[in-house]
Amino acid sequence: MATPDISQLTPTQQEALQTYTAVTDQADPIAAIALLQRCEWNVQIAIARFFDGEPATDPLAEAQAQIPTTSTRQTANLQYENLLAATRPSHRASRIEPEDIVHRVDTGGTVPEQTYRPSPLFSIIFTPVNVLYRVFSTILSPFGFLVPTFLSRLFHRLLYQSQTQTPTQRRALPPAENARRFIREFSEEFGDHNDESTNGGSSTALLPFAESGFNFTLDTAKKDLKFLLVVLLSPSHDENATYIRETLLSTQLKSFFDSHESDLILWGGNVRDSEAYQVSANLQCTKFPFAALICQSSEPGSSGQMTVVLRAVGPMPPAELVAKLGTAITSHQASLSAARAQQAERTATQNLRREQDSAYERSLAQDRERARRRREEEEAARRAEEQAREQVRLAEKKKSNMHQWRRWRAQSLPLEPAGNVNDAIRVSIKMPSGERVIRKFRAEAEMEELYAFVECYEILKAREAEAEDEKDVEEPEEYEHEYSFRLVSPMPRKVYDLQGGGSIGERVGKGANLIVEPITEDDDEVDDE
Which PROSITE patterns does the entry mention (predicted)? Predict the structure, then answer.
Protein backbone atom coordinates (compact mmCIF):
# COMPACT_ATOMS: atom_id res chain seq x y z
CA MET A 1 0.00 0.00 0.00
CA ALA A 2 1.51 3.35 -1.05
CA THR A 3 1.98 5.98 1.62
CA PRO A 4 0.04 9.13 0.60
CA ASP A 5 1.25 12.66 1.05
CA ILE A 6 0.07 14.59 4.11
CA SER A 7 -1.69 17.07 1.85
CA GLN A 8 -3.68 14.20 0.30
CA LEU A 9 -5.14 13.05 3.63
CA THR A 10 -8.74 13.73 4.50
CA PRO A 11 -9.57 16.02 7.46
CA THR A 12 -10.47 12.98 9.54
CA GLN A 13 -7.16 11.29 8.72
CA GLN A 14 -5.21 14.50 9.43
CA GLU A 15 -6.94 14.77 12.82
CA ALA A 16 -6.07 11.14 13.56
CA LEU A 17 -2.43 11.80 12.57
CA GLN A 18 -2.22 14.86 14.84
CA THR A 19 -3.72 12.94 17.76
CA TYR A 20 -1.30 10.03 17.22
CA THR A 21 1.80 12.24 17.02
CA ALA A 22 0.69 14.29 20.06
CA VAL A 23 0.31 11.19 22.22
CA THR A 24 3.36 9.25 21.02
CA ASP A 25 5.72 12.20 20.34
CA GLN A 26 6.74 10.56 17.07
CA ALA A 27 8.44 13.03 14.72
CA ASP A 28 8.39 10.84 11.57
CA PRO A 29 5.02 11.41 9.83
CA ILE A 30 5.71 8.76 7.15
CA ALA A 31 6.04 5.97 9.75
CA ALA A 32 3.00 7.30 11.60
CA ILE A 33 0.88 7.30 8.43
CA ALA A 34 2.01 3.78 7.59
CA LEU A 35 1.05 2.51 11.07
CA LEU A 36 -2.31 4.32 10.92
CA GLN A 37 -3.02 2.75 7.54
CA ARG A 38 -2.31 -0.73 8.95
CA CYS A 39 -4.71 0.07 11.80
CA GLU A 40 -7.45 1.35 9.41
CA TRP A 41 -6.88 4.87 10.84
CA ASN A 42 -7.99 3.78 14.29
CA VAL A 43 -6.00 6.05 16.63
CA GLN A 44 -6.42 3.92 19.75
CA ILE A 45 -5.26 0.73 18.04
CA ALA A 46 -2.28 2.58 16.56
CA ILE A 47 -1.30 4.05 19.94
CA ALA A 48 -1.59 0.61 21.54
CA ARG A 49 0.66 -0.92 18.87
CA PHE A 50 3.17 1.90 19.27
CA PHE A 51 3.54 1.29 23.03
CA ASP A 52 3.03 -2.50 23.07
CA GLY A 53 4.66 -3.38 19.76
CA GLU A 54 3.32 -4.84 16.52
CA PRO A 55 1.39 -8.11 17.03
CA ALA A 56 2.45 -11.24 15.26
CA THR A 57 -0.92 -11.33 13.46
CA ASP A 58 -3.33 -8.60 12.50
CA PRO A 59 -6.46 -8.72 14.72
CA LEU A 60 -8.54 -7.07 12.01
CA ALA A 61 -7.49 -9.68 9.49
CA GLU A 62 -8.25 -12.42 12.01
CA ALA A 63 -11.64 -10.90 12.73
CA GLN A 64 -12.39 -10.75 9.03
CA ALA A 65 -11.27 -14.38 8.59
CA GLN A 66 -13.35 -15.54 11.59
CA ILE A 67 -16.58 -13.98 10.37
CA PRO A 68 -18.85 -16.68 8.88
CA THR A 69 -18.63 -16.64 5.10
CA THR A 70 -21.73 -15.82 3.04
CA SER A 71 -22.69 -16.46 -0.50
CA THR A 72 -22.10 -12.92 -1.75
CA ARG A 73 -19.07 -10.66 -1.40
CA GLN A 74 -21.31 -7.73 -0.65
CA THR A 75 -22.74 -9.37 2.49
CA ALA A 76 -19.23 -10.24 3.73
CA ASN A 77 -18.09 -6.67 3.19
CA LEU A 78 -21.11 -5.36 5.09
CA GLN A 79 -20.29 -7.62 8.03
CA TYR A 80 -16.68 -6.48 7.94
CA GLU A 81 -17.76 -2.84 7.90
CA ASN A 82 -20.05 -3.47 10.86
CA LEU A 83 -17.22 -5.13 12.75
CA LEU A 84 -14.86 -2.23 12.06
CA ALA A 85 -17.55 0.22 13.08
CA ALA A 86 -17.94 -1.64 16.36
CA THR A 87 -14.18 -1.43 17.03
CA ARG A 88 -13.90 2.30 16.30
CA PRO A 89 -14.74 4.50 19.27
CA SER A 90 -17.72 6.74 18.75
CA HIS A 91 -16.70 10.39 18.98
CA ARG A 92 -20.29 11.50 19.10
CA ALA A 93 -20.97 9.66 22.39
CA SER A 94 -18.96 11.75 24.83
CA ARG A 95 -20.66 10.47 27.96
CA ILE A 96 -21.20 7.09 29.55
CA GLU A 97 -24.69 5.61 29.43
CA PRO A 98 -26.13 4.98 32.92
CA GLU A 99 -26.91 1.34 32.12
CA ASP A 100 -23.23 0.72 31.24
CA ILE A 101 -21.95 1.74 34.70
CA VAL A 102 -21.21 -1.31 36.85
CA HIS A 103 -21.88 -0.99 40.59
CA ARG A 104 -21.22 -3.30 43.49
CA VAL A 105 -24.08 -5.70 44.15
CA ASP A 106 -25.86 -6.46 47.40
CA THR A 107 -24.80 -9.98 48.36
CA GLY A 108 -27.03 -10.14 51.41
CA GLY A 109 -30.32 -10.63 49.58
CA THR A 110 -31.89 -13.70 48.01
CA VAL A 111 -33.41 -14.42 44.64
CA PRO A 112 -36.81 -12.65 44.45
CA GLU A 113 -39.73 -14.97 44.58
CA GLN A 114 -41.65 -15.44 41.34
CA THR A 115 -45.43 -15.26 41.62
CA TYR A 116 -47.85 -17.60 39.91
CA ARG A 117 -51.47 -16.63 39.45
CA PRO A 118 -54.10 -18.83 37.82
CA SER A 119 -55.75 -17.58 34.65
CA PRO A 120 -58.90 -15.46 35.08
CA LEU A 121 -60.98 -18.01 33.08
CA PHE A 122 -59.94 -20.80 35.44
CA SER A 123 -60.88 -18.66 38.46
CA ILE A 124 -64.31 -17.78 37.02
CA ILE A 125 -65.14 -21.41 36.18
CA PHE A 126 -64.23 -22.70 39.62
CA THR A 127 -65.85 -19.86 41.60
CA PRO A 128 -69.28 -21.62 41.98
CA VAL A 129 -67.56 -24.87 42.84
CA ASN A 130 -65.50 -23.03 45.43
CA VAL A 131 -68.61 -21.52 47.02
CA LEU A 132 -70.44 -24.86 47.10
CA TYR A 133 -67.40 -26.56 48.52
CA ARG A 134 -67.18 -24.07 51.34
CA VAL A 135 -70.90 -24.43 52.18
CA PHE A 136 -70.96 -28.23 52.11
CA SER A 137 -67.63 -28.48 53.95
CA THR A 138 -69.04 -26.32 56.74
CA ILE A 139 -72.31 -28.25 57.00
CA LEU A 140 -70.94 -31.74 56.57
CA SER A 141 -67.73 -31.25 58.53
CA PRO A 142 -68.94 -33.60 61.33
CA PHE A 143 -69.32 -36.36 58.69
CA GLY A 144 -65.94 -35.72 57.11
CA PHE A 145 -64.70 -39.17 58.08
CA LEU A 146 -67.12 -40.66 55.48
CA VAL A 147 -65.43 -38.80 52.56
CA PRO A 148 -62.31 -40.46 51.15
CA THR A 149 -59.15 -38.60 52.06
CA PHE A 150 -57.78 -38.33 48.50
CA LEU A 151 -60.95 -36.52 47.32
CA SER A 152 -60.63 -33.94 50.07
CA ARG A 153 -56.97 -33.32 49.17
CA LEU A 154 -57.80 -33.06 45.46
CA PHE A 155 -60.50 -30.43 45.97
CA HIS A 156 -58.34 -28.51 48.42
CA ARG A 157 -55.41 -28.42 45.98
CA LEU A 158 -57.59 -27.27 43.07
CA LEU A 159 -59.48 -24.58 44.98
CA TYR A 160 -56.83 -23.32 47.39
CA GLN A 161 -53.79 -23.30 45.15
CA SER A 162 -51.20 -20.85 46.43
CA GLN A 163 -51.10 -17.56 44.65
CA THR A 164 -47.32 -17.34 45.03
CA GLN A 165 -44.91 -20.11 44.11
CA THR A 166 -41.19 -19.86 44.31
CA PRO A 167 -38.75 -21.61 42.03
CA THR A 168 -36.23 -24.05 43.29
CA GLN A 169 -33.80 -21.99 45.34
CA ARG A 170 -30.25 -22.87 46.28
CA ARG A 171 -28.82 -22.54 49.72
CA ALA A 172 -27.30 -19.08 50.19
CA LEU A 173 -23.52 -19.05 50.71
CA PRO A 174 -20.92 -16.32 51.20
CA PRO A 175 -19.66 -14.82 47.91
CA ALA A 176 -16.34 -16.70 47.86
CA GLU A 177 -17.97 -20.03 48.76
CA ASN A 178 -20.65 -19.37 46.16
CA ALA A 179 -18.00 -18.83 43.46
CA ARG A 180 -16.19 -22.04 44.44
CA ARG A 181 -19.48 -23.96 44.34
CA PHE A 182 -20.12 -22.67 40.82
CA ILE A 183 -16.63 -23.75 39.71
CA ARG A 184 -17.03 -27.17 41.34
CA GLU A 185 -20.44 -27.78 39.73
CA PHE A 186 -19.13 -26.53 36.38
CA SER A 187 -16.19 -28.95 36.55
CA GLU A 188 -18.35 -31.88 37.66
CA GLU A 189 -20.88 -31.36 34.88
CA PHE A 190 -18.58 -30.49 32.00
CA GLY A 191 -15.29 -31.96 33.21
CA ASP A 192 -15.74 -35.05 31.06
CA HIS A 193 -15.41 -32.74 28.09
CA ASN A 194 -11.71 -32.45 28.84
CA ASP A 195 -11.21 -36.18 28.40
CA GLU A 196 -12.79 -36.26 24.94
CA SER A 197 -10.38 -35.92 22.07
CA THR A 198 -11.28 -32.98 19.87
CA ASN A 199 -9.54 -31.21 17.03
CA GLY A 200 -7.16 -34.02 16.23
CA GLY A 201 -6.81 -35.44 19.72
CA SER A 202 -6.08 -32.24 21.66
CA SER A 203 -7.82 -31.77 25.03
CA THR A 204 -9.44 -28.56 26.26
CA ALA A 205 -8.91 -27.42 29.87
CA LEU A 206 -11.58 -25.87 32.05
CA LEU A 207 -11.89 -22.10 32.28
CA PRO A 208 -9.85 -20.04 34.81
CA PHE A 209 -12.79 -18.65 36.79
CA ALA A 210 -11.96 -16.38 39.72
CA GLU A 211 -12.60 -18.04 43.09
CA SER A 212 -13.98 -14.89 44.73
CA GLY A 213 -17.20 -12.92 44.91
CA PHE A 214 -18.23 -10.45 42.24
CA ASN A 215 -17.58 -7.36 44.36
CA PHE A 216 -14.07 -8.47 45.30
CA THR A 217 -13.29 -9.43 41.69
CA LEU A 218 -14.63 -6.09 40.44
CA ASP A 219 -12.48 -4.21 42.95
CA THR A 220 -9.44 -6.27 41.93
CA ALA A 221 -9.97 -5.50 38.24
CA LYS A 222 -10.36 -1.81 39.05
CA LYS A 223 -7.29 -1.71 41.26
CA ASP A 224 -5.07 -3.66 38.83
CA LEU A 225 -6.54 -1.93 35.72
CA LYS A 226 -7.57 -5.19 34.10
CA PHE A 227 -10.49 -6.33 32.00
CA LEU A 228 -13.26 -8.32 33.70
CA LEU A 229 -15.24 -10.83 31.65
CA VAL A 230 -18.48 -11.84 33.37
CA VAL A 231 -20.22 -15.02 32.14
CA LEU A 232 -23.76 -15.69 33.41
CA LEU A 233 -25.35 -19.09 32.83
CA SER A 234 -28.90 -20.34 33.31
CA PRO A 235 -29.23 -24.13 33.62
CA SER A 236 -32.90 -23.88 32.63
CA HIS A 237 -31.93 -22.45 29.24
CA ASP A 238 -32.18 -24.98 26.39
CA GLU A 239 -28.86 -24.06 24.78
CA ASN A 240 -26.88 -23.67 28.01
CA ALA A 241 -24.96 -26.97 27.72
CA THR A 242 -24.36 -26.51 23.98
CA TYR A 243 -23.03 -22.98 24.54
CA ILE A 244 -20.63 -24.17 27.24
CA ARG A 245 -19.27 -27.14 25.30
CA GLU A 246 -19.02 -25.54 21.87
CA THR A 247 -18.16 -21.94 22.79
CA LEU A 248 -16.79 -21.53 26.32
CA LEU A 249 -14.76 -24.75 26.26
CA SER A 250 -13.55 -24.31 22.69
CA THR A 251 -9.89 -24.24 21.77
CA GLN A 252 -10.14 -20.73 20.31
CA LEU A 253 -11.54 -19.22 23.51
CA LYS A 254 -9.02 -21.14 25.61
CA SER A 255 -6.16 -19.74 23.51
CA PHE A 256 -7.66 -16.28 23.84
CA PHE A 257 -7.74 -16.58 27.64
CA ASP A 258 -4.15 -17.85 27.71
CA SER A 259 -2.92 -14.93 25.59
CA HIS A 260 -4.72 -12.38 27.79
CA GLU A 261 -3.99 -14.02 31.12
CA SER A 262 -2.11 -10.97 32.42
CA ASP A 263 -4.81 -8.41 31.68
CA LEU A 264 -8.10 -10.35 31.86
CA ILE A 265 -10.07 -11.77 34.81
CA LEU A 266 -12.86 -14.29 34.22
CA TRP A 267 -15.82 -14.51 36.60
CA GLY A 268 -18.81 -16.81 36.18
CA GLY A 269 -22.08 -17.36 37.97
CA ASN A 270 -25.29 -19.34 37.99
CA VAL A 271 -28.39 -17.10 38.00
CA ARG A 272 -30.04 -19.46 40.45
CA ASP A 273 -27.64 -18.02 43.03
CA SER A 274 -28.48 -14.74 44.68
CA GLU A 275 -25.24 -12.98 43.80
CA ALA A 276 -25.32 -13.99 40.11
CA TYR A 277 -28.96 -12.91 39.92
CA GLN A 278 -28.05 -9.48 41.31
CA VAL A 279 -25.17 -9.24 38.82
CA SER A 280 -27.51 -10.06 35.92
CA ALA A 281 -29.83 -7.25 36.99
CA ASN A 282 -26.88 -4.89 37.39
CA LEU A 283 -25.53 -5.66 33.89
CA GLN A 284 -28.97 -5.37 32.21
CA CYS A 285 -28.99 -9.02 31.21
CA THR A 286 -32.04 -9.84 29.04
CA LYS A 287 -31.09 -13.18 27.51
CA PHE A 288 -28.97 -16.19 28.39
CA PRO A 289 -26.24 -17.20 27.99
CA PHE A 290 -24.75 -13.80 28.66
CA ALA A 291 -21.20 -12.40 28.67
CA ALA A 292 -20.10 -8.84 29.45
CA LEU A 293 -16.64 -7.27 29.21
CA ILE A 294 -16.00 -4.63 31.86
CA CYS A 295 -13.10 -2.22 32.23
CA GLN A 296 -12.33 1.14 33.78
CA SER A 297 -13.73 4.04 31.79
CA SER A 298 -11.36 6.57 30.25
CA GLU A 299 -14.04 9.16 29.52
CA PRO A 300 -13.49 12.61 31.09
CA GLY A 301 -15.41 13.05 34.33
CA SER A 302 -16.05 9.33 34.79
CA SER A 303 -13.97 9.21 38.02
CA GLY A 304 -12.58 5.80 37.04
CA GLN A 305 -15.93 4.02 37.05
CA MET A 306 -16.14 0.45 35.81
CA THR A 307 -18.28 0.29 32.66
CA VAL A 308 -19.54 -2.38 30.27
CA VAL A 309 -17.71 -2.11 26.93
CA LEU A 310 -19.17 -5.25 25.35
CA ARG A 311 -22.29 -7.38 25.80
CA ALA A 312 -22.39 -10.78 24.10
CA VAL A 313 -25.99 -11.96 24.42
CA GLY A 314 -27.24 -15.38 23.41
CA PRO A 315 -25.46 -18.32 21.82
CA MET A 316 -22.76 -17.53 19.27
CA PRO A 317 -19.86 -19.32 17.59
CA PRO A 318 -16.51 -19.14 19.39
CA ALA A 319 -14.90 -17.29 16.47
CA GLU A 320 -17.45 -14.50 16.70
CA LEU A 321 -17.09 -14.22 20.49
CA VAL A 322 -13.28 -14.15 20.24
CA ALA A 323 -13.46 -11.49 17.51
CA LYS A 324 -15.75 -9.29 19.58
CA LEU A 325 -13.65 -9.67 22.71
CA GLY A 326 -10.41 -9.04 20.81
CA THR A 327 -11.65 -5.89 19.11
CA ALA A 328 -13.15 -4.54 22.34
CA ILE A 329 -9.95 -5.17 24.31
CA THR A 330 -7.80 -3.66 21.55
CA SER A 331 -9.92 -0.51 21.38
CA HIS A 332 -9.56 0.11 25.12
CA GLN A 333 -6.04 -1.24 25.63
CA ALA A 334 -4.38 2.13 24.97
CA SER A 335 -6.32 3.94 27.68
CA LEU A 336 -5.66 1.16 30.18
CA SER A 337 -1.96 1.13 29.27
CA ALA A 338 -1.79 4.88 29.87
CA ALA A 339 -3.63 4.44 33.18
CA ARG A 340 -1.21 1.64 34.16
CA ALA A 341 1.73 3.91 33.35
CA GLN A 342 0.26 6.67 35.50
CA GLN A 343 -0.42 4.20 38.29
CA ALA A 344 3.13 2.87 38.08
CA GLU A 345 4.45 6.43 38.19
CA ARG A 346 2.29 7.21 41.21
CA THR A 347 3.42 4.02 42.90
CA ALA A 348 7.07 4.82 42.20
CA THR A 349 6.56 8.36 43.52
CA GLN A 350 4.88 7.03 46.65
CA ASN A 351 7.64 4.44 47.18
CA LEU A 352 10.29 7.13 46.72
CA ARG A 353 8.46 9.38 49.15
CA ARG A 354 8.18 6.55 51.67
CA GLU A 355 11.89 5.78 51.29
CA GLN A 356 12.73 9.46 51.77
CA ASP A 357 10.46 9.65 54.81
CA SER A 358 12.01 6.46 56.16
CA ALA A 359 15.53 7.81 55.62
CA TYR A 360 14.52 11.07 57.27
CA GLU A 361 13.04 9.20 60.22
CA ARG A 362 16.21 7.09 60.55
CA SER A 363 18.37 10.22 60.42
CA LEU A 364 16.10 11.93 62.92
CA ALA A 365 16.26 8.88 65.17
CA GLN A 366 20.06 8.87 64.96
CA ASP A 367 20.17 12.58 65.81
CA ARG A 368 17.82 11.97 68.73
CA GLU A 369 20.00 9.08 69.92
CA ARG A 370 23.15 11.22 69.69
CA ALA A 371 21.40 14.04 71.54
CA ARG A 372 20.20 11.57 74.19
CA ARG A 373 23.70 10.16 74.65
CA ARG A 374 25.13 13.69 74.81
CA ARG A 375 22.58 14.65 77.45
CA GLU A 376 23.37 11.49 79.41
CA GLU A 377 27.10 12.20 79.22
CA GLU A 378 26.55 15.80 80.30
CA GLU A 379 24.30 14.64 83.12
CA ALA A 380 26.87 12.04 84.21
CA ALA A 381 29.64 14.64 84.13
CA ARG A 382 27.46 17.04 86.10
CA ARG A 383 26.67 14.38 88.71
CA ALA A 384 30.36 13.41 88.94
CA GLU A 385 31.29 17.06 89.41
CA GLU A 386 28.62 17.48 92.06
CA GLN A 387 29.80 14.32 93.81
CA ALA A 388 33.38 15.56 93.72
CA ARG A 389 32.34 18.93 95.17
CA GLU A 390 30.26 17.15 97.80
CA GLN A 391 33.18 14.93 98.74
CA VAL A 392 35.46 17.96 99.00
CA ARG A 393 32.85 19.72 101.13
CA LEU A 394 32.41 16.68 103.35
CA ALA A 395 36.18 16.28 103.68
CA GLU A 396 36.58 19.95 104.63
CA LYS A 397 33.67 19.68 107.03
CA LYS A 398 35.14 16.53 108.55
CA LYS A 399 38.52 18.21 108.87
CA SER A 400 36.94 21.26 110.51
CA ASN A 401 34.87 19.11 112.85
CA MET A 402 37.93 17.06 113.72
CA HIS A 403 39.94 20.20 114.55
CA GLN A 404 37.04 21.56 116.61
CA TRP A 405 36.65 18.24 118.38
CA ARG A 406 40.35 18.14 119.23
CA ARG A 407 40.21 21.63 120.72
CA TRP A 408 37.04 20.74 122.62
CA ARG A 409 38.52 17.43 123.87
CA ALA A 410 41.78 19.10 124.83
CA GLN A 411 40.02 21.53 127.14
CA SER A 412 37.96 18.72 128.65
CA LEU A 413 40.95 16.54 129.54
CA PRO A 414 41.70 16.43 133.27
CA LEU A 415 45.02 17.73 134.52
CA GLU A 416 47.93 15.38 135.20
CA PRO A 417 47.78 13.97 138.76
CA ALA A 418 50.25 15.30 141.26
CA GLY A 419 53.28 13.34 142.22
CA ASN A 420 52.01 12.41 145.69
CA VAL A 421 49.02 10.53 144.28
CA ASN A 422 49.54 6.87 145.08
CA ASP A 423 47.34 5.35 142.35
CA ALA A 424 48.77 7.44 139.53
CA ILE A 425 50.01 5.40 136.58
CA ARG A 426 53.09 6.49 134.67
CA VAL A 427 52.85 5.90 130.90
CA SER A 428 55.62 6.51 128.36
CA ILE A 429 54.29 7.16 124.87
CA LYS A 430 56.33 7.36 121.67
CA MET A 431 54.57 9.75 119.27
CA PRO A 432 54.47 9.28 115.46
CA SER A 433 56.95 12.18 115.19
CA GLY A 434 59.48 10.15 117.25
CA GLU A 435 59.09 12.31 120.36
CA ARG A 436 58.66 10.37 123.62
CA VAL A 437 56.19 11.81 126.14
CA ILE A 438 55.84 10.67 129.71
CA ARG A 439 52.65 11.47 131.58
CA LYS A 440 50.75 10.28 134.60
CA PHE A 441 47.10 9.25 134.51
CA ARG A 442 44.64 8.34 137.18
CA ALA A 443 44.17 4.60 137.53
CA GLU A 444 40.36 4.83 137.28
CA ALA A 445 40.52 6.88 134.08
CA GLU A 446 39.09 5.23 130.99
CA MET A 447 41.33 4.11 128.12
CA GLU A 448 39.65 6.74 125.92
CA GLU A 449 41.33 9.46 128.01
CA LEU A 450 44.75 8.02 127.11
CA TYR A 451 43.78 7.99 123.41
CA ALA A 452 42.37 11.54 123.69
CA PHE A 453 45.66 12.73 125.21
CA VAL A 454 47.61 11.30 122.29
CA GLU A 455 45.11 12.82 119.77
CA CYS A 456 45.20 16.27 121.39
CA TYR A 457 48.92 16.34 122.32
CA GLU A 458 49.84 18.91 119.66
CA ILE A 459 47.05 21.23 120.80
CA LEU A 460 48.02 20.80 124.46
CA LYS A 461 51.65 21.46 123.62
CA ALA A 462 50.78 24.59 121.66
CA ARG A 463 48.56 25.84 124.46
CA GLU A 464 51.33 25.40 127.02
CA ALA A 465 53.72 27.24 124.73
CA GLU A 466 51.37 30.19 124.39
CA ALA A 467 50.57 30.15 128.08
CA GLU A 468 47.15 31.55 127.41
CA ASP A 469 43.78 30.16 128.25
CA GLU A 470 41.73 29.34 125.18
CA LYS A 471 38.11 30.19 125.07
CA ASP A 472 35.63 27.42 125.62
CA VAL A 473 35.00 25.41 122.46
CA GLU A 474 31.75 23.55 121.92
CA GLU A 475 31.60 19.98 120.79
CA PRO A 476 30.71 19.74 117.04
CA GLU A 477 27.18 18.57 116.32
CA GLU A 478 26.50 15.28 114.58
CA TYR A 479 30.15 14.29 114.67
CA GLU A 480 31.56 11.04 115.99
CA HIS A 481 35.32 11.00 116.22
CA GLU A 482 37.27 7.98 115.07
CA TYR A 483 40.85 7.48 116.18
CA SER A 484 43.25 6.72 113.34
CA PHE A 485 45.86 5.03 115.53
CA ARG A 486 46.22 2.46 118.26
CA LEU A 487 48.46 2.08 121.25
CA VAL A 488 50.73 -0.95 121.20
CA SER A 489 53.18 -2.37 123.74
CA PRO A 490 56.26 -3.50 121.72
CA MET A 491 57.71 -6.24 123.94
CA PRO A 492 55.79 -8.36 124.26
CA ARG A 493 53.55 -6.97 121.58
CA LYS A 494 50.13 -6.15 122.93
CA VAL A 495 47.46 -3.90 121.46
CA TYR A 496 45.48 -1.68 123.82
CA ASP A 497 42.47 -0.88 121.68
CA LEU A 498 39.34 0.98 122.70
CA GLN A 499 37.02 -1.92 121.86
CA GLY A 500 38.25 -3.77 124.96
CA GLY A 501 37.07 -0.95 127.26
CA GLY A 502 38.16 -0.82 130.91
CA SER A 503 40.24 1.68 132.87
CA ILE A 504 43.87 2.51 132.39
CA GLY A 505 44.82 0.79 135.62
CA GLU A 506 43.09 -2.41 134.62
CA ARG A 507 44.52 -2.51 131.10
CA VAL A 508 48.01 -1.03 131.49
CA GLY A 509 48.85 -1.77 135.11
CA LYS A 510 51.16 0.48 137.13
CA GLY A 511 53.18 1.59 134.11
CA ALA A 512 53.85 0.88 130.47
CA ASN A 513 55.86 1.89 127.41
CA LEU A 514 53.52 2.38 124.45
CA ILE A 515 53.96 3.17 120.79
CA VAL A 516 51.43 5.12 118.67
CA GLU A 517 50.85 2.92 115.66
CA PRO A 518 48.79 4.40 112.72
CA ILE A 519 45.89 2.30 111.47
CA THR A 520 45.86 1.56 107.70
CA GLU A 521 43.23 -0.11 105.50
CA ASP A 522 45.26 -3.31 105.38
CA ASP A 523 45.32 -3.39 109.15
CA ASP A 524 41.54 -2.97 109.18
CA GLU A 525 41.14 -5.93 106.85
CA VAL A 526 43.43 -8.07 109.02
CA ASP A 527 41.51 -7.08 112.13
CA ASP A 528 38.22 -7.94 110.44
CA GLU A 529 39.52 -11.39 109.54
Answer: UBX
